Amino acid sequence: SILLETIDALFDAQRLAVLATSLEGHPYTTLVAFVASEDRRRLYFATHRATRKSANIAHDNRVSLLIDNRGNRAEDFRQAVAVTALGNAVEVPEEQRPALLERYLARHPLLHEFVSSPACVLFEVRVHRYCLVRRFQDVFELDLAP
Predict the structure, then answer these.
(1) What would the DSSP string read from start to end of the chain?
(2) Do the bridges between strand 26-36 and strand 81-91 make them parallel or antiparallel, or are there none, so unpaired?
(3) Taking the mean position of all CA atoms in its chain, how far away is CA 112?
């Protein structure tokens, strides 16, 4: 479908996402380097355990990730595409960490030292819905819930 092709193209082109968590009932956003599973049902990012985003997820694991193609140019008003992934973030279990870190580092080799730190945690976002917006007005949704 055109929706899945657009999501795949965004995921291939973009390395960073805006992660939204909740801080005392208020949205809190930050940039994270991400990688998607092949079936797009999981998104992964790494952070230090002592970060605000990690603490927010421990309190409320509902998150969203925004991935977009904006270039801060006038053309963005005609060509911008953004996808929001809604899901729940959970820490990757230790036994799954090596294989997932291999995938993550294939996409982000410069983060090897960062993810090798004992203070680093790898999160898996279990996506249940994607919302895609093109040209600020065309909205499409893809529900992944079982």
Answers:
(1) -HHHHHHHHHHHH--EEEEEEEETTEEEEEEEEEEE-TTSSEEEEEEETTSHHHHHHHH--EEEEEEE---SSTTHHHH-EEEEEEEEEEEPPTTTHHHHHHHHHHH-GGGHHHHHSTTEEEEEEEEEEEEEEETTTEEEEEE---
(2) unpaired
(3) 18
pLDDT at 113: 93
pLDDT in tens, 1-44: 778 888 999 999 999 999 999 988 899 999 999 999 999 999 99
Alpha carbon 58 to its chain centroid, in Å, reads 17
Amino acid, res. 53 = K
Rg of the chain (C-alpha set): 15
Token pair for 83: 């996808």
Cα gap 80→69, rounded to integer Å: 6
